[in-house]
Amino acid sequence: MKNYYCVLTFHTTHYALNTEKVLKERNVPVKLMPVPRQVSSSCGIAAEFPCEEKEKILLLCKEYHIEFDDVHQIEKDSKNNWFTKLISMNK
After folding, report:
1. Mean of pLDDT values over 74-85
2. Considering only 25-29, 38-42, 77-81, 83-87, which range has the smallest mean pLDDT?
3. In b/e form, how buried is each residue of 20-58, taking b as 16+ CB within 10 angstroms?
4. Is 27 helix (H, G, I), strand (E, B) or coil?
5. For residue 83, how many other CB atoms are within 10 A of its CB?
6. What is the DSSP string of 39-89?
7. Residue 39: what pLDDT?
8. What is the reported pLDDT for 81?
9. What is the CATH number of the domain that holds 43?
């Protein structure tokens, strides 16, 4: 079982909702969630996805003119599932 996942953060809720729609239509696994406290963003919604899908998601965001704030890899603590490490990834 993987102990990490990735999230996209957004400037607005509109972009978060549009991202979910575009990705689900293309069978890319995505789940909207509250932005983790460790991640700062002006919007309270983030899109969680498998890190292996990062390049595909970034290409789709570019193709559909979806603006996002940043991409982060989150590692989970196996004891209590809290976020323990945050790595900002270049766009």
Report:
1. 56
2. 83-87
3. bebbeeeebebebeebbeebebebebbbebebeeeeebb
4. coil
5. 17
6. S--SSSEEEEE-GGGHHHHHHHHHHTT---SEEEEEEEPTTT--EEEEEEE
7. 76
8. 46
9. 3.30.70
Question: Dihedral through CA 68, CA 72, CA 73, CA 79, nearest 10?
Answer: -110
Distance CA 39, CA 48 (A): 13
The DSSP code sequence of 11-26 is SSHHHHHHHHHHHHHT
Q: What is the pLDDT of residue 91?
A: 47
> Structurally, how many domains does the chain consist of?
1
The residue whose two tokens read 């069978």 is 27
pTM flag (> 0.85): no
The boundaries of the domain holding residue 16 are: 4-89
